[in-house]
Amino acid sequence: MWRSLFGAFVLLAACSGGSGANTPDTGVMVDTFRPDTAPPPDTTTGMDSQAQPDTFVPEAPLVDTAPRDTAPGEPPMDSTPPVDTAPPEDTVATPDTAPPTDTAPDGPPGCSEAAPCPAGQGCCAGRCLDLQRDVNNCGACGNACPSVASTPSCVAGRCVCGCSASFGDCDGTCANGCEVNLATSAAHCGACGRACVVARGTPRCVGSVCQVAACDEGFGDCDMLAANGCEGDLRADNARCGACATRCGPGERCAAGRCERDCRRVGAVACEAGSVCDFTDGQCRAPGALCLLAGEFRACGMQSCGPGTTCDPESNRCVAFTGCRGLSCDASGRCYGTDCPCRRPAGTCSTASLEALNRADFLGSGSEGAFGFDLDDACNAYIATLVSGPDFVRRLAPSGALTVWRSVTNLNMGEVAVQRRPEGAYGGAATSEVAFAYICCSSCGCESTNPQGVGHVDMASSTAPLPVVIPATTTAGMGPFGVYYADTGPYGLAVSAAADFYVGNVRANGDYFRYDTSARSVRPIATLPARVHASTAYDLQQMLVAVEGGDLYLVSNTGGDPPRRLGSPRPLGSEVVSVRRDPFTGRFYAGLRDRRLVSFAPDATDVQLVAMLPSPGRISLSADGWIYVLNVFRGSRFSEVTRYPLPATR
């Protein structure tokens, strides 16, 4: 079109009087174009190129054929536009940099191997397309970028997924688009690779936040925090047993998701205030309840011994004790007694009658006679005498048969002690180790340069003398009887279940010695703050020792630990003459200088009056359920045996 305009401009110039070379001034341009001559090449290169009108040769004669209502120089409405559509010479040519549309061809049709597309384009179905940017033909003809949850684009011939909100291309493969819903995927919750993990449970993702979907059997999400998973162990947690809101009560323990009432078990909830655990059946009861078996646990090697048990120092293991016939130990080594009857078992033997026990041939007669007293597992009764002249150890069998052992010479005797075995609490073997004490004072006219010490009875012979096995130096005190010739020498004689002898005041008041009957060796194991008055086995590991003034101490059998005071100062309120432990109830019984016979708990509390005695006495407990008391200094009779029943139940 612009060439037509240019031709019109030249025509108007000629009509206005302009001249041109070799052209007559006729008002009509003469076509000098030679049909067989090609037009000159277009050498226009830019804005600074000038047209050469004086040498321009029009392509065809310009004949004004437009209708009268058409502007001069414009083609008629139905005429075909010229083929040459190049811009005019004064227009700047700008390179085409705009990206092609997704579907419009980038080049002219008709591409083929003979007519390839420009560089960077590809021939797709006869059209040249930009394979570097076309999302429908990205990198290859027909390779459409996916639009699954994304707005795709083609960059350098590769599909790039622009993911929609809450979706992600987590596998890095745009071919399947943004395949993950980050709002609901537990493996990619909120971001690719951010997996939900629930300890002991199953996770889920809700709104791009990890939550607990379900817990494994026996566990619960009790704090509602997904970070620590199903933290509640509903199988064994007393605070959430079977369900997060279920708490086990006092004396209960969670086992297999159920609260079971057994305060004996490890991990059980403590009994409520004012009650204690009864180890007979695992129920919480008030202190002092009938048949109660309660107490603390004490270390014993790799075990811990509780109520109804004690530690055997030889095996360093717990054994049944205090009336229990069996033993229960859990995997941690925590033990307690089982088969602990409420009623005292009937004894398998019976001690001789009171009439027989008070016979003159057994106790003596007049103002001199029996001063020490004890019983063995077979219900045999033993006494040691305090008489003028040679003294005796005598044994009276349940049948009434009497056996007598004579001292080596004229030496006053103080105590006699007999071995008692735990398994013989209600009757047992007749063979026992028996010890006695020589206590002759320095001014008593005794016929010996060594008037004090401990002797050992030879049970195999009734004719053998009673030799000293623990020599003692002279010691004296003012108790427990307040009689100068009776309160001297070794005191607190006891024989343990292991058959060892224990006695105090051997070399000085307050010392405490052990005699090993097997090795026949003597050694001190403790030093107490005052003269020893009485002692007995506390359990298989310790001795209970009463000293002048009335204090009680626990002493290790081996001397491994220092003495430990039991209870408050002077817990029984008087000097202790003798003391023994009841193997059925675990309580102790003591005869006191003020004539009281009392019982007390193993911790030296709960002191109860049993009886008022005729005089201060030495006591022993029989297998047939009686407390026997040798009441000494009974006037003209000197001594007398009385008895009192032991409790029938715990």
* Main beta-sheet strand count, sense and barrel state: 5 strands, antiparallel
- The residue fraction in helices comes out at under 10%
Instruction: Specify Rg, calculated over alpha carbons.
Output: 60 Å
Task: Give the total of beta strands.
Answer: 44
**Tally of contiguous helical segments:** 3
How do the strands line up in the largest sheet? 21-22-23-24-25
Bulk shape: rod-shaped
Q: List low-pLDDT spans.
A: 1-106
Distance between the termini: 131 Å
Q: How much of the residues is beta strand, in percent?
A: 25-35%
Give the class from helix and strand content and strand pairing: mainly beta
Oligomer: single chain
Q: What's the rounded overall pLDDT mean?
A: 83
Describe the structure.
The structure is a single chain. This protein is mainly β and 650 residues long. It is 3% helix and 31% strand. The protein contains three helices and 44 strands. It has a five-stranded antiparallel beta sheet. Strands 15-16-20-19 form a four-stranded mixed beta sheet, with no helix packed on it. A four-stranded antiparallel beta sheet has the order 26-27-28-29, with no helix packed on it. A hairpin with a 5-residue loop joins strand 23 and strand 24. The chain is rod-shaped. The chain starts with a helix and ends in a 5-residue tail after the last strand. 38% of the residues are buried. The N terminus is likely disordered.
